[in-house]
Fold this sequence. Notes:
By secondary structure, the protein is mainly alpha-helical. About 75% of the residues lie in helices and about 0% in strands. It contains nine helices and no strands. It has helices spanning about 5-25, 35-40, 45-50, 55-85, 90-100, 105-125, 130-150, 160-175, 185-204. The protein is globular.
Amino acid sequence: MTAATTPKGERRRAALVEAAAKLLVEGGFDAVRHRAVAERAALPLASTTYYFDSLEDLVTAAVEHHSNAELATGRRRLEELATRNRGVQATVDLVLDLLLGPESGDPAADAEAVLLRYERLVATGRRPYLRPLMRTLSAQLNELLTEIFARSGTPVTATELERLVALVDGAVVNALVEVDPEPRAAAARMLRAALEPAAHDRAR
């Protein structure tokens, strides 16, 4: 057993990954640096190179950690959705939480978080080492979104899901370009408009 696989080593590695994930969310990929991660985790600088072969490995672990946490939250919310309100608004809120992140109650902070999220997504394309992980995470997200729509009484095909996600992305990007202070609200309007006709037909 090496030091990295001992309980203490696993705790240290987990602390570094969590610290890197927080930095990633707060400042994007450029914020994830060996020194910054070590300082956030309150660990020696050398620990980052001890537990990770490279900065790319650390960034990959951070992306996976953050994405898995969001997916886990989405799955918990889905169980609540299945037993409580299954209306269009509940569906819109849950879908946007997965695609844009949860609301904090501070519109300015939420808008900044959405901007950082999309900057991060665009920057991911410039990092080939992340592509295998992103394909896996994307498949898991699509599976969860498909289940959300199904349990909400609005089942969608893979093509329809792609269109709805593109609708949200387009609304958000357009809002960001126009410096709209509430990009999430713009996305919510578009998604709700797309889902309400189907919900109305179902209720007839």
